[in-house]
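User: I'm curious whether this sequence folds into something compact or stays loose and floppy. Could you predict its structure so I can see for myself?
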Amino acid sequence: MLNLIKELTCLDGISGREENVRDYILQKIEGKCTVNVDPLGNIICFKKGKNTPVKKIMLDAHMDEVGLIITAVGNDGFLRFATVGGIDVSVLLSRRVKIGDTLGVIGSKPVHLCSETDKNSLPKVEDLYIDIGATNKEQALEHVQIGDTAAFENEFLDLGDNISAKALDDRIGCAILINLIENYDEYDFYAVFSVQEEVGLRGAKAATYTVNPDSAIVLEATTAQDIKDVPETKQVCKLGNGTAVSFMDKSTIYDREYYLAALNSGILSQPKAAVSGGNNSGAVHLSRGGVRTIALSVPCRYIHSCSCVCNKNDIINTYNLAKCMLSGIASGEIK
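Assistant: Here's the prediction. I'll summarize afterward.
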């Protein structure tokens, strides 16, 4: 699965511009399930299994990643931008980005020109710019235009027990879902590769309405703060401790029976020990008359940056737990 994740993270798919990721996934799952692409760009799949489930089940993973969108091109050739999704300004400074085939660097005021006040605070996004080497506006417009998106430029790293790359949130979920389509055939299920999660759960809202499931499993990556100087009670979840299973966040109170079933499955897992953030579950569980929902997440350090870090075994455990929960709900063993 690691090679699949590597290939997925090397693709650029800012929210609303997921076509590169979508085309790759469509190629991977061709002939393995029934596929429809809806008007928003969601991939909605039906995988026929050996048995009919007692409940219609949908699994979701989002294709999009956080990034930037070009809002202006200055006479000096520098590009102004806005963020797409939740990006802390600290992870933007001096980063390399890619706008289509054009490379650039995010620039800001040099430190030796900063006042003491400036040095003790982060700049605002509107004070940053992208330098693509253009000397004037006309030259810049030969390569980019307003409305183009910019993605982090970074390589995939194998760090032994861990991996690092951009967009592990949520290309890991996409890789798990592709593997389920390829290898799981016990029960029928629906699989959704959704768009625009990072800007408000938009794709999942439309896709869930279309599928109209009884139950849903949302596959995600979630913030891990098991790093230096963070108190134990603030660490949320830890790399190497298995899948993070959510009981509540800012958009969802999760199904209690599904939550307990996941933690008691015998597959390495941990509670996501914070009521914070959110994911596609917020749209999924409110669709139509309501959907029983669980979120299974891979712990991820430095999320929404160019250098996310996840544990290899956590990825495998999340795949196994998703398969276990799918079979348990489909068979009726998990009530």
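Summary: The first strand starts at residue 34 and ends at 37. Residues 312-331 form the longest helix (20 residues).
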